[in-house]
Amino acid sequence: MDLTIGVDLGGTKVQAVAVANQRVVGEARRPTPQTDATAVVDEIVATVKEAASAAPGKVVRIGIGTPGTITGDGHVSKATNVPGFMEDVPLGPSVSKAFGGVPVAVDNDVRAAAMGEFHRGAGRPYRDLLGVFVGTGVGGGLILGGTVRRGRGSAGEIGHTSVKQGGRQCSCGQRGHVEAYAGRMCIELAARRKQAEGADTVLFEIMKRKGRDRVTSSVIADALERGDALTHALIDKAVEALAIGLANVQNTLDLEAMIVGGGLGDRLGAPFIRRIADAMTPRLRVPEHPPVMLATQLGDLSGAVGAAVIAGG
Amino acid sequence: MDLTIGVDLGGTKVQAVAVANQRVVGEARRPTPQTDATAVVDEIVATVKEAASAAPGKVVRIGIGTPGTITGDGHVSKATNVPGFMEDVPLGPSVSKAFGGVPVAVDNDVRAAAMGEFHRGAGRPYRDLLGVFVGTGVGGGLILGGTVRRGRGSAGEIGHTSVKQGGRQCSCGQRGHVEAYAGRMCIELAARRKQAEGADTVLFEIMKRKGRDRVTSSVIADALERGDALTHALIDKAVEALAIGLANVQNTLDLEAMIVGGGLGDRLGAPFIRRIADAMTPRLRVPEHPPVMLATQLGDLSGAVGAAVIAGG
Predict the structure, then answer these.
(1) Cβ-Cβ contacts under 8 Å, A167 against chain B
(2) Distance from CA of B129 to the nearest CA of A (A)
(3) Beta-carbon separation of A289 and B163 below 8 A
(4) A254 lies in a domain?
(5) Which of B147, B158, B161 to mutate to test the interface with A (most CBs of A within 10 A)?
(6) Nearest-CA residue of chain B relative to A285?
(7) Claim to verify: residue A199 and residue A65 sit in the same structural domain
(8) Is residue B109 located within the same domain as residue B132?
(9) CATH code of the domain in which A130 resides
């Protein structure tokens, strides 16, 4: 059996799936080494092998979704969250070599996730869609007329569209972006600022009790369930920023569907997506014809499955 | 010689061009009747005949760019600025009948203008571009991979994307849109409000001296030249709103080029476009790789030429 391995490289984990006949037949997940690029590449190779070992067959292609800037020959750089990946890393060639020269396709992680949902997930009925992934940051993957939109390489950066002039500072240094309100990291920073200013919150207590050193999606979800006022206020702002940003995309492109995923999007799920839709629709140029708003079907496998699709699996 | 006639229908004028072998060989322009739909359709027919009479040959196709909602069979409705065109008007069939049944293509006016610049104007070197037309309102026409983007019918509404939460009221009733700051009508309304509040301005004096009943693009240009502080402040805000709105489009789509036209865009020209570019670039995700920013080449003929292109001429 010919196996295509799809890999989703992130700052905290490497997720791989083995795909045969367009179905996931194996999975593996390992923490991203926090040391250097060589260790990260070795761990990717190990994760690919582990995913492949779950099914009989031979690895014939590998696709990797990665953050950062990607060049045509599979090199990656400027991936802030992956150790050693700020410098140029020959990701595609290195992984290919480890598997005796099998072809390795390297693409943007968010675009891969959108491709996963489009070809194998919630997006299958549509030709035009936006995948919006709300996690540490906020990324977008556009499919227009059945084709992924790359532009000159950086299309889909909806997290860095502006929704509030002079608003909250974003991870990129600018102000008022969608990500400044809806990205998990910016939410955590805003919560810390508010707490330092005297706001009462159980958010960091929950974080510690869960043994985490950052405010994860599940910490946020628990705080919401506990009725934490600060967390509710921050998520209200996230919903509003996403609603404005997505309405802007919709008024520009008139898409059929939007799929909301990512760590926070998947964790908060349908009620969160419904709130975004409700706040977005009145802002549309044609409010009687909004896009279909969907959760992901593949959850945190969207990226790895999409990377396999991009590789041809 | 086979003539294709392209028509640009607006609230104040009907502009037609006769095209043969992809070149404009005739032009005609008449004021839009301010009475009813029948009078408007008759005037379109007369303008087509006048444009055609400028060159020897036979009218074999007609293209019409119109505001409002367009159905597949060439009917138009909800065009607020054209008398009688809020109701359903069988525009395509009526004009076709007047010319013995020649095929008539009806499309959106802004999209037609973008097509005109893309195929016959400033956009010829590019495959991906946005035409942004700053006139009474602000409209956008997207060309992606050489194809006009329609979506489900309403793509390109960049004038109604949000740049300032709770900002100035737009002609559509919502707040903080690009058009609320950059559309000529909204600029005029803002100037009237400011004057009523006591602001000093020569804008309305210039308007009267020119014998106009509204603040036209040339009135605005004259006031700027006279150093009118209020007009300068309003145009500063227009530049900023356009810069944010266009940066949002660019971060979403990563286009090769943007062409700024429309009554106000064409009148204020290169210095206005340079200011928009200068304010937009630092807001880009990839500021070292901005889109090329261009003026129109066809000026106020973009729409009529584009309508001819859409008809096949």
Answers:
(1) 165
(2) 10
(3) no
(4) yes
(5) B161
(6) B160
(7) no
(8) no
(9) 3.30.420.40
Same domain, B182 and B255: yes
Q: Which amino acid is at A130?
A: L
CA distance B81 to chain A (A): 17
CA distance A166 to chain B (A): 9
- Contacting residues of B for A154, CB less than 8 Å apart: 251, 254, 285-286, 289
Q: What is the distance in angstroms between the Cα of A27 and the nearest Cα belonging to chain B?
A: 32
Q: Measured in whole angstroms, how far is the alpha carbon of residue B40 from the centre of its chain? A: 19
Same domain, B36 and B6: yes
Mutate to test the interface with B, among A178, A252, A254 (most CBs of B within 10 A): A252
Structure tokens at A81: 């969250």
Is ipTM over 0.90?
yes
Chain-chain contact of B252 with A172 (C-beta, under 8 angstroms): no
**Which residue, chain included where needed, has tokens 């502009």?**
B15
Asked whether A10 and A56 are in contact (CB, 8 A), the reply is no
Nearest to B253 among A149, A164, A251 (CB): A149
What pLDDT digit, counting tens, does each position of B262-308 carry?
A: 999 999 999 999 999 999 999 999 999 999 999 999 999 999 999 99
User: Are A208 and A226 within one domain?
Assistant: yes
Helix (H, G, I), strand (E, B) or coil at A100: coil
pTM: 0.95
Spell out a b/e string for B206-240, using b for 16 or more CB atoms within 10 Å of the CB, else e.
bbeeeeeeebbbebbbbbbeeebebbeebbebbbb
- Give the list of residues 6+ apart from residue A188 with CB closer than 8 angstroms, or none: A214, A215
Separation between Cα atoms, residue B7 and residue A132, nearest integer Å: 40
SS3 B288: coil
- Measuring CA to CA, how many Å separate A127 from each of A84, A120, A153, A256, A260? 37, 13, 21, 7, 16
- Are A305 and A298 in contact, with CB atoms under 8 Å apart? yes
CA distances to A130, B18, B107, B266 from B225, rounded to whole Å, are: 45, 36, 37, 16
- Identify the domain containing residue B59 by its residue range: 2-114+302-311
Amino acid at B252: T
> Residues A61, A44: contact at Cβ < 8 Å?
no
Sheet arrangement for strand A147-148? A147-148, A138-144, A129-134, A257-261, A292-295
Residue at B43 is within a domain: yes
User: Quick check: is B119 in a domain?
Assistant: no
Residue pLDDT, tens place only, A31-87: 999 999 999 999 999 999 999 999 899 999 999 999 999 988 999 999 988 999 999
Residues A91 and A45 both lie in one domain: yes
